[in-house]
Amino acid sequence: MTQQALLVMDVQQVVVDRHPDPDYLPRLRKAVDAARAAGVPVIYVVVGFRPGYPEISARNKMFGRLAGASAAGGAGAGGEELATRVHPDVAPGPGEVVVTKRRVSAFSGSDLDVVLRAGDISHLVLTGIATSGVVLSTLRQAADLDFGLTVLADGCLDSDAEVHRLLTEKVFPQQAEVTTVADWTAAL
C-alpha cells in the first residue's frame, strides 16, 4: 500500500497574516485532523534562516531583501525564531516533524527527502501558502523525485486568485491529482 503524508507548508503566522482568508485555516485544520485520525503523517515545512541570513545571496530576488534588512540592523535572532512558528490554529502535534527549508521548494536546503524516505513515504498531499510559491516549487521537485502527488486545491492559498485557479486547474493536474479537502478527507 502507498504510504502518504500530508505536507503543511509555509503556514507560519507571518505568512498567514499576509494572506487574509477567514475560511482557510479552519479548512486546513480539517485536513490535518483527518490525516491524524487516519494515521497519515503530517509533516510541517517552514522557511527559516540562521541569524544574519548567511544562506541568502544578495542576488536572490525573493529573499535578498531579508539579508539587506539584517545588514541594516533589521530582524535579530529572536525574529527568525518567531518567523518560523506555524500558525497556532494548525500547529504541529507531539512528535510531528517540522522541516526547515532555505528556499521556496520544501526540498531546497532541507532534510525533507531524508525524512520521507526514512518513513517509506511515496505519496505527498500538498497544502500551503502560496500556491505559486512553495506548492508549485515542491510539486515540481517532488515529481522529479518520483513521488506520487495530490494537491488539495482549497488547502492552498495565493494572493492572486487567478494564478491559484490557473495552477490548480491547468498546471498541477499534469503531475498530480487535484482535489478538495472535503473529498480527500472523505476518502481516508
Automatic annotation (TrEMBL):
Domain spans labelled Isochorismatase-like: 5-183
Keyword Hydrolase: yes
InterPro entries associated with the record: Isochorismatase-like_dom, Isochorismatase-like_hydrls, Isochorismatase-like_sf
Superkingdom, natural source: Bacteria
Keywords: Hydrolase
Keyword Oxidoreductase (UniProt): no
Annotated protein name in UniProt: Nicotinamidase-related amidase
Organism annotation: Streptomyces umbrinus
